[in-house]
Amino acid sequence: MRSAEFDREHVLRQAMQAFMVKGYSKTSMQDLTRATGLHPGSIYCAFENKRGLLLAAIAQYQADRMAQFQAYFPEDGKVVDGLAAYLANIVAECQCGADKACLLTKSLNELAEQDEEIRALLCQSLGTCQQGLARQFQRAIDNQEMPANQSSIERAEYFVMGVYGLRTLAQTHPAEATLTRLADKLLKDSCN
């Protein structure tokens, strides 16, 4: 059997969108073929099944998010400015459609208790995010942008909790001003 030829990253990004809109359980194979442009046989050949496609989509999502995250923190820039821009982007994403804002949040809420492999991948992704934040907080402490009264790890843990709290709250469709106010408070509390 010959292998399917397609732009894997594009297909995975399209699958991400489908999973974010409907969730894993409600996303049908027809939804995925429509979103990706692939025939079911090509999806099965490349990813084995819908679950395999979700696992690959989560891995791609994490890679995309890490690249996006790194762009907020140039070496010659202030960490606090990067954190503020990162949070502003999260608020903007949530306002564009809270149900489509974060594949990790959606998947954690739906599948973490049902599938150990998916739970482990999601936990690894969150851990990678937290480690990246801890590095940035440590850089800010070292550059005296913020006091050393908390460790970079404690700051990163608090920040991650706040980000996922914002994403979850956004699913209740609060006013943008509310999300912005909470994001500003998260930034202030994380940096003091």
Write a structural description:
Residues 5-65 form the HTH tetR-type domain. Keywords: DNA-binding, Transcription, Transcription regulation. It comes from Shewanella zhuhaiensis. This protein is mainly α. The protein has two domains: 1-58, Homeodomain-like (Arc Repressor Mutant, subunit A); 72-191, Tetracycline Repressor, domain 2, CATH 1.10.357. The chain contains nine helices and no strands. It has helices at residues 8-26, 29-36, 40-47, 50-71, 79-97, 103-111, 116-142, 152-170, 176-191. It is elongated.
Shape: elongated
Ranges with pLDDT <50 over ≥5 residues?
none
CATH fold description of the largest domain: Tetracycline Repressor, domain 2
Intertermini distance:
59 Å
Structural class: mainly alpha
Oligomeric category: single chain
Compressed to H and E, one letter per element, the order equals HHHHHHHHH
CATH class of the largest domain: Mainly Alpha
Q: Could you tell me the radius of gyration in angstroms?
A: 18 Å
According to DSSP, the number of beta strands is 0
Strands, helices and their partners?
Layout: H1 8-26, H2 29-36, H3 40-47, H4 50-71, H5 79-97, H6 103-111, H7 116-142, H8 152-170, H9 176-191
Features:
elongated, Arc Repressor Mutant, subunit A, TetR/AcrR family transcriptional regulator, DNA-binding, 192 residues, mainly alpha, 9 helices, Homeodomain-like_sf, Tetracycline Repressor, domain 2
